[in-house]
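Supplementary material to the annual report.
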Amino acid sequence: MPRIKFYIARYLEELIRFKWIAIGVSIYFYARMLKKQIVEGSFQEHMSINVWDISLNIQNDSYIILYFVIPIILLISTTSILEDFNYQTLIRLGTIKKWILRSLFKFWKKSSILILIWVFMSLYMTIKLPVSWNWSPFSKSNGVYNDLFEISAVFDSPLWAFVLEIALLILTFSILHIALSLIYATTKKKSLLLVFCVAFFIWSIAGFKLLPNKFSFFAPTTYFSITQYFHAFDSPIMGVGILLGAITFCYIYLLLIDRNIKQHILSTRPYLPFLLYLFLCVIGIISTSFSLTSHKNTILDTWVISFRGVSSNFFTYSSFFYYMIVFFGLIYLFSMEMNKEIDRMGYYKIIRFRNLEKWFWSWFKKILIKTMLVLILLTTLSFIIGAIMGMKCNFYVTDFESSVLLIFYQFFINGFLQVVLYILLIFIFSWTRRESVQVLVLISSFMILMLPGVNPLGIIPVGLNSLIYTENFSPFHITLILLIANLIMYFTIKYIFTKNLKI
Amino acid sequence: MSIISIKNVTKNFKKNPLLENINLDIDKGKIYGIIGPNGSGKSVLFKMICGFLFPDKGDILIHGEKIGKKERFPDNFGVIIERPGYIANKTGFQNLKELSLIRGTIEDRQISKTMKLVGLDPNSSQKVKNFSLGMKQKLAICQAIMEEQQVLILDEPFNALDIDSVKRIRELLLKFKDEGRTILLTSHNQEDINICDIVYRINGYQLEQA
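Predicted assembly:
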């Protein structure tokens, strides 16, 4: 109990400080001017007003928000963060998360006073005006001096608009303060915090003055005013989604802020190339989905069109580049792994295996398994993305004449054989040349061999796993070519293993 | 079990090594001194123990728990690291009161008692912005001990103190040790280190017993 009394005393002490009186007076004069405008407007339009016209307009006035509320809130937030972020406080709280939540509480001690003053002034200006629980005719009109037109259509009673305005302010203020706290707790740089505040303020002004209506959801002022909120969003659910998204992001960051993120990031570093590769593959599949028609195409179409590839008879730049990303990107990742085996530990391991073929197989079998897993993953991702993008979940292909089974065969069996061939070629090149740059030269030559007109008979074993080949060639013919090519590579490797190692 | 265990900790500063493969076990009820030249990493070591910084490699365990796993900062630690932040427009007592409200484990009289112990007047209306360096240091010591914290991490606790205050604080620390509290401190002054049971030196990025 004494603690609560202490807090109440501190709150009242803060309330009567000169700065709040000054703010109150400033808002009073502006609000008076606004009231005069609204009253004159109602006379001009011969419509009556009531208390809500004045109070809600003052609470939603963009200039009060831009030039009073936002700067004051930013000031309260930054001063409370900078005052309170110190070792003595952190060690007592135990986590940065608790510090942020405590900081939010302290922030609200001062910002609640701002809201109180603002609301008080908005209500004070309604003295001598008719009291009603309903919208006035002026509120419902689409006049110049009336900003309540849209919300009067949404809410039955202006009281709901009033309540929701307060709720929106509480939510927005809280998100803003938590974001600033997170920035400072992460970076511990005062200058960065201040730069962010200035940028936010400028962005608020720019957003309000410059953004067209359809982009007004980017403007921060949208989230400080219920009238602007409903003006910005066709459906208010989108606005709720944005705010919930912001809260979710803050919440996840709060959960992670006390962890040693750097070590986690460093531990994921070896996986970054693969993650980047996967990201690019996903982007390609999404891009393919956009080109399809959701009510006509299926999830299988998403997969087939994504991995269509190119042939001598069919060539598009998008398919060509996507093939490069998926398959040449994959073999480039494998070549990095292969180089590690050859360059770093190769001889120490070879001497222990005592047999080059055993050594080769010890890591090569892992690459084979990974190849199959990647093909399965790409297929799964295509189906999932296709489904999310609204494609029909049917198991047929609309754009290809080949049967689904043959397409699966082409993708998995011939795809597997083709990737293995690429890897074996790269291995031979790396083993004999010992310069990884030359692997890129090899991959570039693969690309040239895939250009239109270069491989009309489909016998050069490059790019033969493109799904488009099923339209003109038998997948079994392709399997035969790839098997022969792989066998040649196998015997080549056996041969080079009989030669001197390049130490 | 050691109260604090530092295992193979390495810390770099802008890609330059600061501390390398530090191993240290701190047992309860002793005073440990860490000495080393300026910039050798004493404060960084203390910050890592308190969870304010993470090591680049290795682990720090407090009561057997890895720092940052459950709670980011260890419980029941009194800390003086670098210059503390105060609310400049409040008195020393008001500043300590602000801190005591976080955990709510002590009353005003405990704050007053601690202030008197270190030589500060709890009833003084002097604002912290007008405190001398020595007074601010005493206030820092106050906040580190007022809640009867069992582990004290004190980076140069005797800085800016007059001779009598130094003597007083030394006696206080020895008393805390007898009560079973664990103290880690750094100092440039050999006399301050004399109260330590065990002294370590940071030499060439390594920690060695002096």
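Chain A is about 75% helix and 0% strand.
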